[in-house]
């Protein structure tokens, strides 16, 4: 340009470049702040996201309160931690959407929904926090607990340490990004998640609902009608209607009492929360036995986030997958640092919320809601007013839908692998029910039993011993068994042999079939026994592969007409609340 227009000085050219750059910045800033800050769809999406996250939080907190966790831990430490992490994550994904809008020049971007990782939260409560709590409890001669507050505080510290490690795992997976799905079949990853949904989100709440059928069953049917059948409730969100009906029946039927509400009102005050970094690092060693649970939970969160980003892309909004995974990990780390034991994640629903007309403000409203509720003790008021039985159906729905989503991406020939992968979590849940029954019926006896000792279960019979062995570190066991079964069905013997070796190594070092990381080679240990079993299976697969190469065994199964789908079904809006699976679509 200086050659064609020599009368322009160098300083003039520089000034022109600065002017153009400034104009672009102003245009981008104008676009950044010209996003529609409030749409009617934002209100609908806010009700859906806030109510479902609130239901998860309330039920989890109620579980802890019911076993004896003191109010100062539940309302003074855990709830504020949830509020901070909800605020951070909601604003993080709100800003992410704004950046995408600025870079793309569009103003119709919808931010990703964010909240508590429901399956992970229940896995942590049932498989880490409660076992640690009951192991720490001490009883007098009459079976009365002596140190409930001390045991609860210790279990909380272990919980936040475990949650912190989960966040670090999620951040590590963010570095890998989408490649995380290349090493493990997606069906196996989602089957492990579905096993949590079936055992802890479906079976557990269903038992509680069955204890109060006049109150609970109508709420379950309302949720099923709204979410599965698409029935409209005259503009009232399904989750909100379930709470209204269930709470009304609860007060009318005497399930909810004024005395309980008055007790909960005492907890209404400002809470400052707790910075738990000291507790985290002072109890890291206590988390070691649960690494086999923490890593798979973090892995399923990472895979779920990848799918959520892909679903958002189908709705026209392209978010960076690594930044989304990083946001989950950072939010979980922040949750742990401020006292929450619940992992955080983006979740499915973006296409539905965008179809409602939501943009970014619903995330800001969600953040504000949780900050107010969690820091003022209003959580206790909600628990005093609202019937838990009216919230359980939402968890039941989630438990069912994660199983349905997994089946939607599973080829029919691999259904057997899905069913096999469900078994370890069912065994773990059944084991915990048996343990809880003994602790309720004979706490003095339960105190003398180390439920983490496999040899202790052996004295109660082969079936109970097997229940413990199959249910321990159930997520790793689920993934290994499911992967092995997939490749058995496909006659892909090298891959089946690889996963058999994985099972052998994991068993020997305590990642499977036991709850403690160690080298299990003692006379009465079962780690080396499982190692021998899996190694024998690997040898069999090796022999079959050789025979296959020489034509004595059928070739590897390849069915081009039934390609494995790479994502969960396309989601469709259902009357302004949760999305449901509508039809299968390639990912």
Describe this structure in words.
By secondary structure, the chain is mainly α. The chain has 23 helices and four strands. The chain has a two-stranded antiparallel sheet. The chain has a two-stranded antiparallel sheet with strand order 3-4. Helix 9 runs antiparallel to helix 15. The radius of gyration is 26 Å and the shape is globular.
Give the helices and strands, then pairings.
Layout: H1 10-33, H2 40-66, H3 71-104, E1 114-116, H4 118-136, H5 148-176, H6 186-210, H7 213-227, H8 238-252, H9 258-265, H10 277-282, H11 291-314, H12 321-337, E2 344-346, H13 350-356, H14 361-376, H15 378-385, H16 392-408, H17 415-441, H18 443-447, H19 454-458, H20 462-471, H21 474-489, H22 493-508, H23 527-549, E3 570-572, E4 580-583
Antiparallel strand pairs: 1-2, 3-4
Helix pairs in contact: 1-3, 2-3, 2-4, 2-13, 2-14, 3-12, 3-14, 4-5, 4-6, 4-11, 4-17, 5-11, 5-12, 6-11, 6-16, 6-17, 6-21, 7-8, 7-16, 9-15, 11-12, 17-20, 17-21, 21-22, 22-23
């Amino acid at each position: 340009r200086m050659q064609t227009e020599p009368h322009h000085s160098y300083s003039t050219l520089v000034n022109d470049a600065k002017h153009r750059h400034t104009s672009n910045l102003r245009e981008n800033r104008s676009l950044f702040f010209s996003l529609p800050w409030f749409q009617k769809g934002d209100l609908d999406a806010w009700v859906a996201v806030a109510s479902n996250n609130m239901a998860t939080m309330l039920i989890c907190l109620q579980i802890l309160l019911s076993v004896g966790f003191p109010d100062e831990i539940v309302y003074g430490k855990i709830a504020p931690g949830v509020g901070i992490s909800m605020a951070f994550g909601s604003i993080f994904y709100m800003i992410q959407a704004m950046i995408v809008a600025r870079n793309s020049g569009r103003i119709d971007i919808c931010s990703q929904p964010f909240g508590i990782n429901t399956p992970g939260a229940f896995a942590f409560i049932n498989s880490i926090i409660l076992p640690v709590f009951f192991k720490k409890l001490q009883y007098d001669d009459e079976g009365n607990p002596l140190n409930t507050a001390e045991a609860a505080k210790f279990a909380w510290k272990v919980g936040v340490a475990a949650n912190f490690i989960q966040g670090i795992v999620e951040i590590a997976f963010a570095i890998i990004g989408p490649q995380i799905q290349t090493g493990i079949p997606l069906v196996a990853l989602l089957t492990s998640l579905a096993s949590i949904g079936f055992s802890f989100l479906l079976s557990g709440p269903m038992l509680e609902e069955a204890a109060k059928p006049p109150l609970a069953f109508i709420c379950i049917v309302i949720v099923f009608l709204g979410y599965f059948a698409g029935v409209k409730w005259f503009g009232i969100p399904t989750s909100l209607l379930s709470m209204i009906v269930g709470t009304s029946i609860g007060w009318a039927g005497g399930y909810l009492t004024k005395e309980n509400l008055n007790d909960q009102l005492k907890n209404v005050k400002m809470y400052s929360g707790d910075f738990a970094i000291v507790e985290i690092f002072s109890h890291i060693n206590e988390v070691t036995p649960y690494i086999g649970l923490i890593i798979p939970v973090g892995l399923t969160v990472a895979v779920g986030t990848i799918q959520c980003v892909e679903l958002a892309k189908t709705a026209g909004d392209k978010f960076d997958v690594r930044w989304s995974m990083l946001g989950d990990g950072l939010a979980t780390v922040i949750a742990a640092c401020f006292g929450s034991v619940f992992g955080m994640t983006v979740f499915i629903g973006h296409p539905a919320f965008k179809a409602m007309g939501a943009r970014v403000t619903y995330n800001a409203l969600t953040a504000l809601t949780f900050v107010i509720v969690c820091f003022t003790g209003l959580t206790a008021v909600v628990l005093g007013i609202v019937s838990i039985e009216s919230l359980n159906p939402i968890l039941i729905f989630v438990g069912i839908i994660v199983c349905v989503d997994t089946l939607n991406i599973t080829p029919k020939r691999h259904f057997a692998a899905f069913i096999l992968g469900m078994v370890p979590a069912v065994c773990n849940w059944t084991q915990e029910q048996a343990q809880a029954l003994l602790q309720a019926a004979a706490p003095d006896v339960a105190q003398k039993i180390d439920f983490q000792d496999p040899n202790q279960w052996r004295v109660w019979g082969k079936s109970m011993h097997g229940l413990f062995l199959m249910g321990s570190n159930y997520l790793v066991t689920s993934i290994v068994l499911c992967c092995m079964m997939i490749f058995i069905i496909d006659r892909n013997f090298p891959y089946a042999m690889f996963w058999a070796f994985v099972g052998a190594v994991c068993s020997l070092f305590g990642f499977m079939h036991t709850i403690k990381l160690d080298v299990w080679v003692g006379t009465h240990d079962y780690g080396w026994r499982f190692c021998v079993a899996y190694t024998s299976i690997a040898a069999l697969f090796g022999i079959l592969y050789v025979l296959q190469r020489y034509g004595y065994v059928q070739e590897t199964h390849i069915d081009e007409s039934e390609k494995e789908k790479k994502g969960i079904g396309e989601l469709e809006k259902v009357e302004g609340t949760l999305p449901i699976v509508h039809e299968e679509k390639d990912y």
